[in-house]
Design goal:
The protein is α/β, with parallel strands linked by helices and 205 residues long. 34% of the residues lie in helices and 25% in strands. The chain has 7 helices and 7 strands. It has a 7-stranded mixed beta sheet. The two termini are 25 Å apart.
Length: 205
């Protein structure tokens, strides 16, 4: 992943997402937050502008969070949403920069796995999985291709937009669910939003 590729749209990213997907994109990402235990060590991959971080800490103020984000401007936006009393560690980078000295209870990867080509995803998931405890939880929210024409049009439009504005290397939605299964992540619960185009799933390692 290219560092700082999303800097160009950091200040309008949330607006654009809500403009297209309305409350569905927020509801999906918040759906499983209550499943996280208090005092968990949480790894957030590609946290964006920080609204989800604020929502998480409101529900789970005793958790400690490591916030991995490839955009410096997204990190700056996130920092102003967090009270200093909370334990949050901001890391500018990708899965290659996950602190190796910590074993995490939970990983949240919302709209992160879709940034990679399918051929890269096995490596990406493997890097994340290596940092998790044995009974850890994965919270994954992302798009799925339900083979409907409007979903295919939206996917092509989104990938084209992010290739132009953010230098995104991927061209297509990867088979992220299948790659998680291959990594021995077991889906235990899921929900669908926006006409089945957005899936949020809870996995256990």
């Amino acid at each position: 992943m290219i560092l700082n590729g999303f800097n160009r749209i950091a200040f309008i990213y949330d607006f654009l997402a809500k403009l297209v997907y309305g409350h569905h994109i927020v509801d999906a990402q918040e759906y499983f937050l209550n499943k996280i235990r208090d005092y968990s060590k949480i790894l957030i991959m590609g946290g964006g502008s920080g609204w989800l971080l604020a929502a998480l800490l409101k529900k789970k103020p005793n958790c400690e969070v490591w916030y991995i984000e490839a955009s410096e401007k997204m990190i700056a936006l996130s920092k102003i949403k967090v009270d200093k009393k909370h334990k949050v560690h901001f890391v500018h980078g990708t899965e290659e920069n996950i602190p190796s000295s910590i074993q995490y209870d939970v990983v949240i990867a919302n709209f992160y796995l879709d940034l990679f080509a399918d051929r890269q995803l096995t490596h990406v998931i493997s890097k994340i999985r290596a940092s998790l405890k044995g009974e850890s939880l994965w919270v994954v929210t992302d798009f799925i291709d339900g083979n409907r024409w409007w979903q295919k049009v939206l996917l092509k439009t989104m990938y084209l937009f992010f290739r132009i504005t953010c230098s995104l290397e991927s061209h297509d939605l990867p088979a992220w669910g299948k790659r998680l299964e291959q990594a021995k992540a077991r889906e235990i619960e899921s929900a669908f939003f926006y006409g089945g185009f957005i899936k949020t799933a809870l996995y256990q390692r």
